[in-house]
Design brief:
By secondary structure, this protein is α/β, with parallel strands linked by helices. It folds into two domains: 143 residues, Response regulator (Rossmann fold, 3-Layer(aba) Sandwich); 138 residues, Winged helix-like DNA-binding domain superfamily/Winged helix DNA-binding domain (Arc Repressor Mutant, subunit A), CATH 1.10.10. It is 47% helix and 18% strand. The protein contains eleven helices and twelve strands. Strands 3-2-4-5-6 form a five-stranded parallel β-sheet, sandwiched between helices. Strands 10-12-11 form a three-stranded antiparallel β-sheet. Strands 1-7 form a two-stranded antiparallel sheet. Strand 5, helix 4 and strand 6 form a beta-alpha-beta unit.
Length: 327
């Protein structure tokens, strides 16, 4: 796929063209990323393999950093963590592509920069990710845009808006002035207890979640629909994520990012976007692995667990009432 759109050069407030750093070991992919970044209006500052960049002198980081990382050994993890810290301080935008095998490791390296993480993406997905970066550049203008492309962008904008609205409605106890894309640290404190995560903090009593077997049965029933209907008819990643994490909390188990992406029932890149937005909202918590601080797990916040417990309590009561009346 050849990028068939062209932007005016992307410039900062001083009129300087923004730069891009491209890091990829696969040469063909590296050249594709270069072509697409240039077509989008960026100036290429660096384009090389990960090891080459890591071994070179530390220079300025591009305003956009495109990284392809299919395997993450200790050296690569160290580089990714440095990029995360530098981008977090400088405001650079990171777009990182990886595979499912390396997802947990790569995800754990990015805690502060808000990196877009793509899983086994095609070229089109990378272009969309660059487009999301461009959406935050003020006064950007397209030189040429076909009508069908314009309609596609409108549909994408509408979908993102609907996603934000759905998450806003899901958020329990939304803080005054908070929006669907509000960045805020989680208020709950967590500690590791053996292989479990135990929440502590708020004094208000919370109803207990049902037994994990009850929640797993709900998940199995949802999955059973795929035997009879197209699964895309019922795609609801936010709810599937909440159900899986509720079951894991009842089982007192940790959940990896890879496992949660599978449970979401949508492509992994899409699942990661939902997870990121739900973490930003405070619905979910990102918890560093106590045995390896470079890795992270995902869990329900206490408020979200409370909302899920109340949901199950109310739905069980609604089912039990007609049954009792019939006796």
């Amino acid at each position: 796929m050849q990028a068939d759109f062209s932007y005016e050069p992307v410039c900062d407030g001083a009129g300087c063209q923004l730069g891009v750093t491209i890091l990829a070991d696969r040469e063909v992919l590296r050249e594709q990323m270069r072509e697409d970044a240039v077509a989008a209006g960026f100036r290429v500052m660096e384009c090389c393999g990960l090891d080459e960049y890591a071994s070179g002198s530390v220079g300025s980081l591009g305003d956009l950093v495109l990284v392809d990382c299919v395997a993450a050994d200790a050296g690569v993890m160290a580089l990714l963590s440095r990029l995360d810290m530098r981008a977090g301080k400088s405001g650079a935008q990171l777009v990182v592509s990886t595979g499912m095998d390396a997802l947990d490791t790569v995800f754990g390296c990015f805690a502060v920069s808000g990196a877009q993480i793509l899983v086994d993406p095609g070229r089109a997905e990378r272009i969309v990710a660059i487009g999301r970066v461009l959406a935050h550049v003020p006064n950007l203008r397209l030189r040429e845009l076909a009508e069908e492309d314009r309609l596609m962008l409108l549909r994408l904008t509408e979908q993102v808006g609907k996603m934000a609205e759905r998450l806003e409605r899901l958020s329990p106890g939304q803080r005054a002035g908070g929006g669907a894309f509000r960045l805020e640290a989680a208020a709950d404190a967590w500690r590791a207890a053996g292989d479990e995560y135990v929440a502590h903090g708020g004094a208000s009593p919370r109803p207990a979640l049902p037994d994990a077997s009850v929640i797993r049965a709900v998940i199995r029933n949802r999955q059973e629909r795929a035997r009879y209907f197209d699964p895309e008819l019922f795609a609801d990643p936010a709810w599937d994520i909440l159900l899986d994490l509720a079951a894991a909390r009842a089982e007192r188990k940790r959940v990896s990012v890879t496992s949660l992406c599978i449970a979401a029932g949508v492509p992994a890149t899409t699942a990661l976007r939902w997870i990121s937005q739900m973490v930003e909202l405070g619905l979910l918590l990102r918890i560093p692995d106590p045995l390896d601080r470079r890795r992270a797990h995902i869990a329900l916040s206490d408020d979200t667990a409370d909302a899920m417990a109340r949901y199950f309590a109310e739905t069980r009561a609604a089912v039990a009432a007609p049954m009792a009346a019939a006796l």
